[in-house]
Amino acid sequence: MKFENKLISGLLVKRYKRFFVDVKIGNKIITAHCPNTGSMYGLLKAGNKVWLTKSNNPKRKLKYTLQIIEDNKKKVGINTHLTNNIVLEAIRNKLIPEFYNVETIKQEFGFGATTRFDFFLSNNKYKYFLEVKNVTLSRKKTIAEFPDAVTSRGAKHINELLKAKKFNYKIYILFVVQRDDCTKFKIASDIDQIYSSLLSKAIKEGLKILCYDCKFLSKGIKLNKPLKFISQ
After folding, report:
1. What architecture is the 8-76 domain classified under in CATH?
2. What are the residues whose beta carbons fall under 8 Å from the beta carbon of 119, sequence distance 6 or more?
3. How many other C-beta atoms lie within 10 A of the C-beta of residue 162?
């Protein structure tokens, strides 16, 4: 997945109102769009090195978009709007063994009256629903965690996936860890016990969990290698 334009480095000043972040570039402070509604737990230290891109859209109020924050000398991708594109590219390039043989790929696929899953996949034998979650949190060395705040939306998706299974869909959640310093992944049950319990129950009922880290390139980010899932 390629960035719209080349990365520009700066220093984090502060994040506020969820979607705004002030960044110092040289001697100038600019306000950029923050494409992440989560808490970004542990990443928002003033002075952290960051990378942004400048938009080609002349009508955009905020010309810059925050893409990466460096934490303890490790890059962390925070743009949740890119996550599905990273996964789409990986599926098309057959980087995820579970989906090697899919023939149809559709995004934002409706299920029921109020639900849209990130991906509908199918071949002549199976049909799948795949929900994707972006992961930035790591509180212990080599261990990535999700979520970084209570996620009622995440809980809803689990319940909807279980409903889909009753209609013979194979159901998956793919946790995309937008960092490359972790070898394991776990659910942060102390942050959201309801989500943790619900996920554990869903796994027993047939929900499949995939976890991958990412590789950072000068022009983009791509899905890299699978991580070990530490179950509760």
Report:
1. Beta Barrel (2.40)
2. 84, 87, 88, 91, 105, 106, 107, 109, 128, 129, 130, 131, 132
3. 16
**pTM greater than 0.90:** yes
- Residue in 70, 99, 45, 103 with CA at minimum distance from that of residue 180: 70
Report pLDDT digits (tens) over 180-191. 999 999 999 999
Bridge partners (DSSP) listed for residue 177: 135, 213
**CATH 3.40.50.720 is held by the domain 80-230:** no
Amino acid code (one letter) for 227: L
User: In the chain, which segments carry CATH 2.40.50.580?
Assistant: 8-76
Positive or negative: CA dihedral 221, 226, 230, 232: positive
